[in-house]
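tool_call: predict_structure(chain=1)
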Amino acid sequence: MEQALTKDIKDYAVQLGADLVGIADLERVKGIDTIPGNLLNFFTRAVVIAIQMSPEIFEQIEDEPTLHYAHQYVAVNQLLDQINLRIQNKILKMGYKALAIPASQTVDREKWMGHISTKAVAKTAGLGWLGKSLLLVTPQFGPRIRIACLLINAPLISDQPLSNRCGNCTKCKDACPAKAIHGISWEDRPNSREEAIDLGKCISRLEAIAQKQGRQDRICGVCIKVCPWGRQ
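tool_result:
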């Protein structure tokens, strides 16, 4: 039953437009910061979906995001939300609990975090690993993706996490306009976000760009562009 249900949900996600889908065992992220703090109390698994963005979008980027990238960033997040909600509806109709986490929503602007770190959950679901920029890097598309997750208590078979494959590469660190990436290596994950990146430098640059371009989304894209994983 578990195997058939897992295949059914994964196939459905792909039919709806997901390029990648994985199942995370939430026990592996026990203790992670969430908003609210008891967010994971009633869930045991997460369905994580990813949609690739056009590589050409990133090739247009020089030292700041283009308006083309900004538009596709928003559009792909909206598509992820729609797919996530439809999977949520399917699981709810089966009688299980399900809660779609909004794609790329910041709910705490002091810690700059959402309801849960979707990247951490996606890593646990075997979609990729945390790169030196702390972005999720997938074997298929590198970091040129957007991701979203759905918390559930359905008995799905979880996927196995991937090992870190960044090696000695420091392209994201070298290219970062804010000099915010420290370039350290880890097998699983850093001890803290601060150990990997200077969030203050990153956010300051993102806010300056957003104000300059007259938009709300805080994006850059330079470290995504230079990552060798997934480049065509």
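agent: The beta strands are 20-25, 45-52, 98-101, 129-130, 136-137, 145-152. Proceeding to next step.
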